[in-house]
Amino acid sequence: MSSPAEYNDNLASLAALPALLEKWGYPDAALAPKDLYEIASHIIATPGLRAGDYVVQLGFATQAHVDQLMAGKPENVLTLEHLSNNIDNLRSSIQRIVAYTEKRPYYTTLPEVPSQLMHRDDIREACGHETVVIDTPSGRPCLVFTENARLKDFEQMARDKRTSNPLYNMHAAGPILALGQRGEIYRLANVDAGAIIANDVNSQANVFTPEKATTDVQKLFVRMLDYAHEKGSTNVALQPQPDGRVRARYRRSAYMFDIPVVRPFPPEQGNELAQFLHRVSQARYTDDQVNVEGRLLAPADGNLIYRSQEAEIFLRLSYTPLDSAGLDTAPESISIRLIPRTTNRVHLDKMQIKPSVITAISDSLRESKGLILLAGPTNSGKSTTIAGALTLEHELFGDRRNRLAAEQPVERRIPDILQHAVTARNNYDLMTAAILRQDPDTVYIGEIRSRSSAAAAVRGSGTGTLMMSTIHADDAILAIPTLRAYINNPIVESAEAAMVNEHDMVEALNLIVAQRLIPRLCKCREGIEAKTFDSHRSQIEAYCKKHGLTPPNDAQFHQLAKSKQANPNGCELCDGTGFDGVLPINETLSFTRELKDSLHEMFERGTFRYSELVRFRDRSLFDAALERVLTDGAQIADLYI
Question: Which pLDDT tens digit goes with each residue over 619-636?
Answer without folding.
Answer: 999 999 999 999 989 999
